[in-house]
């Protein structure tokens, strides 16, 4: 069957995709998200510009300048990485749903998943508070945890698939297929140059923290009033019935006795 795909194709082997997920094909390429060409959050990063911006960060991180392509400069990171797109790409990888990020990776479901209102913000806040600063070294600038992780994931994402710099999202990692994202995490998990670094523990925690955010109550939690405003997406994903004040079976006394005289 003839089909057109995005810049990063989904896995060819259907066995690589869980049965509850679906392989999606696009009849036409989607429009790039709004934003000026030079907007680092919503715009377009060409390969030279992206690699040049992250070369010094990776060199400072692992002590070698040979990690990235030879075309990259050794100039400091001087642009804000596309954090929100990157984090949404992680959430879609961990808990695919019916959002554009899940569709782009080629693994999706017909209901909401990890990319829901408030989830990315919650995960970014957790990464900022839990990661030491600067995570990538002073040469990369004083990037908070979520931004530093975005630099790392996007750098390895370009290595996994150079076409990811021209996808519909500003973050190359978010443009990857589900299989390519898995490859990025495998590289991060097994790279011997990360051994003994705090970064090793942070990298290993990314999928775990993403799953925690996706399955939590944050999608329906009002931080100001400190209460739920509806049924959280995480409850639907886990089929959680919700809190209970008790069951009828436990009301009263055993054997239909409803009172006891002393």
UniProtKB/TrEMBL annotation:
<feature type="region of interest" description="Disordered">
    <location>
        <begin position="1"/>
        <end position="41"/>
    </location>
</feature>
<dbReference type="InterPro" id="IPR019546">
    <property type="entry name" value="TAT_signal_bac_arc"/>
</dbReference>
<protein>
    <submittedName>
        <fullName>Uncharacterized protein</fullName>
    </submittedName>
</protein>
<dbReference type="InterPro" id="IPR006311">
    <property type="entry name" value="TAT_signal"/>
</dbReference>
């Amino acid at each position: 069957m003839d089909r057109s795909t995005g810049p990063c194709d989904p896995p060819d082997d259907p066995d690589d995709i869980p049965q509850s997920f679906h392989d999606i094909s696009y009849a036409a390429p989607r429009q790039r998200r709004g934003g000026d060409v030079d907007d680092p959050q919503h715009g377009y990063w060409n390969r030279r510009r992206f690699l040049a911006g992250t070369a010094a960060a990776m060199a400072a991180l692992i002590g070698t300048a040979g990690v990235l392509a030879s075309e990259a400069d050794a100039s400091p990171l001087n642009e804000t990485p596309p954090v929100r797109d990157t984090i949404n790409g992680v959430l879609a990888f961990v808990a695919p749903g019916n959002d554009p990020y899940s569709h782009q990776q080629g693994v999706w479901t017909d209901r909401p998943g990890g990319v829901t209102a408030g989830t990315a913000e919650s995960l970014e806040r957790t990464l900022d508070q839990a990661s030491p600063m600067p995570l990538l070294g002073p040469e990369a600038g004083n990037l908070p945890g979520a931004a530093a992780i975005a630099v790392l994931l996007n750098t390895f994402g370009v290595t996994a698939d150079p076409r990811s710099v021209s996808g519909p999202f500003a973050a190359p990692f978010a443009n990857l297929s589900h299989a390519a994202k898995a490859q990025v995490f495998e590289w991060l998990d097994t790279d011997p140059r990360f051994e003994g670094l705090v970064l090793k523990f942070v990298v290993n925690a990314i999928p775990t923290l993403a799953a925690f955010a996706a399955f939590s109550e944050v999608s329906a939690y009002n931080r100001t009033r400190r209460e739920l405003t509806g049924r959280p997406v995480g409850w639907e994903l886990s089929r959680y019935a919700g809190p209970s004040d008790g069951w009828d079976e436990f009301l009263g006394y055993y054997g239909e006795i409803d009172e006891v005289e002393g």
